[in-house]
Amino acid sequence: MHKLLNTPLLRKESYIGGEWWRGESTLAVHCPATGETIETVWDFDREAATAAVRSAELALPMWRDKTAKERAHILRTWHDEIIRHTEELALILTAEQGKPLAEARAEILYGASYIEWFAEEAKRIYGDVIAPPNNDRRVLVLKQPVGVVAAITPWNFPSAMLARKLAPALAAGCTFVCKPAAETPLSALALAVLAEKAGVPAGVFNVVVSSRAREVGEVFTGDAAVRKLSFTGSTPVGKLLAAQCAQTVKKVSLELGGNAPFIVFDDADIDRAVAGAIASKYRNAGQTCICTNRILVQDAVYDKFIEKYCARVAELKIGSGFEDGVDLGPMITADAVGKVARLVGEACAAGGRILIGGKRGNGNGNFYLPTVLEVAAESPICREEIFGPVSPVIRFVNDQEAVSIANDTPYGLAAYMYSRDLGRIWRVAEQLEYGMVGINESGISNEMAPFGGVKESGIGREGSKYGLDDYLETKYLCMGIS
Ligand code: ADP
User: Fold this and answer.
1) Domain ranges of the chain
2) Is the Cβ atom of 198 under 6 angstroms away from ligand 1?
């Protein structure tokens, strides 16, 4: 065990039906900065996943029938426990995921903000009374929880992606089962420790750790008691899970891959654009679904932008997330580094030019150096979600060309644009086929705003006043009164 992790929040057991389960086989969790094993946790299968669904099903009537205020109080208490344990949660997160400790603390607070927000929103679920077609009846609409919700979450934000799903689900009156990514199960288990402490009743929140993702996914998508699946991860897995859910016609929320364009127009504040692009590209070592994937810079400011951007990239400090002043941690696995190296190789073979970086880091960890590449819009690296610290930069001439390059992808999650011309901002923002557009701002994600994508980037929205809808059914009551 890592010496910094001497905390009761570190668990090896899965949390099912309010009990801490021990299994028969185990799964090692590695530190991506050093390769060392941080902890060995119990590894579960189909049976445990099924048991978790049964527990959630059993707990549903009790949780659904609590008043909104009671549910809100429990969520608020859970939020407060998370805030109280921010430091321990952040240490666990950095240890298993690799991100710099400052980013880990920010992720814990960000995740907690969703629990706080939905604790508040729980009390604002409204039905409707509609004008009837005849006076002998009344037309009413109720909002009710969808039922048991299953969630499958990724390793890039192992705490916050879970919080973003469990918070609206529990607020709405749904019970919840989840499978965290096998690379990063410790953050999810730590949240379960605090759920128990906060008084979340047994069976309402369940965590099943498993290296057999497909097997658990089949249970979550195949069991008729599960009425909704919420998934964050890659587009191919999202498509597969959506297809599996079709068999029992479950609701699905999918938060999938992106290919975010970052457009710098010739009237932009270049320093602001550089700072925005650095934050958006290199946060979490480039491993976020809303990370800038392509930087489009207008001809007249291209050289100036490149000079300033490369100078900032050269200053980024790479190292273990536990080191002071580190900007960029390791990537999650050696395979992830291999994928980035392949994409850079393909971009160069297609005529791309490396301006800075372009190679792996030294030592044992999964490091790739922050990289800037000049490429053409058709370069293979512009077609894939890079998910690593590489900035392909493309030159463009006019607004129409920028919009057409930006939209030339099956993805549609986040886009960014920098300009000071209000007319141009409106025109381009409306034409971008994306669920979220950052305008002179790259820190777009917060609990009060609707996060989500269009096209193959997903279905549904997380956070905001819209975020509860995905967890509610609309029931129509027609009441005869004559
Ligand atoms: P990433 O590239 O971020 O690892 P994945 O989509 O592979 O994205 O993983 C996101 C989550 O989906 C993880 O929890 C992973 O274990 C899970 N997962 C991967 N493949 C499957 C599958 N076939 N069925 C169910 N879950 C899966």
Assistant:
1) 2-256+457-478, 260-446
2) no
* H helical segments located in 152-290: 160-172, 186-198, 213-222, 235-246, 270-282
- Is position 255 annotated as part of the catalytic site? yes
CA of 119 from ligand 1 middle (Å) equals 29
pTM for the predicted model, two decimal places? 0.97
Q: Give start and end residues of each alpha helix (H) in 85-146.
A: 86-97, 101-121
The single residue listed with the structure tokens 């080191």 is: 323
What topology does CATH give the domain 260-446?
Aldehyde Dehydrogenase; Chain A, domain 2 (3.40.309)
Exactly one of 39, 116, 255, 462 is catalytic; which is it?
A: 255
Atom 2, ligand 1: which residue's CA is nearest?
234
Q: Is 182 in the pocket of ligand 1 (CB under 6 A)?
A: yes
DSSP one-letter code for 288: S
Q: How far is the CA of 213 from the centre of ligand 1 (A)?
A: 7
User: Which tens digits make up the pLDDT trace of 226-272?
Assistant: 999 999 999 999 999 999 999 999 999 999 999 999 999 999 999 99
> Tens digit of pLDDT for each residue in 41-100?
999 999 999 999 999 999 999 999 999 999 999 999 999 999 999 999 999 999 999 999
Q: Which of 209, 223, 237 to mutate to test the pocket of ligand 1 (most atoms within 8 A of CB)?
A: 237
Q: How far is the CA of 193 from the centre of ligand 1 (A)?
A: 24
| Beta strand residue intervals within 12-111, DSSP E | 14-16, 19-21, 25-30, 37-43
CATH of domain 2-256+457-478: 3.40.605.10
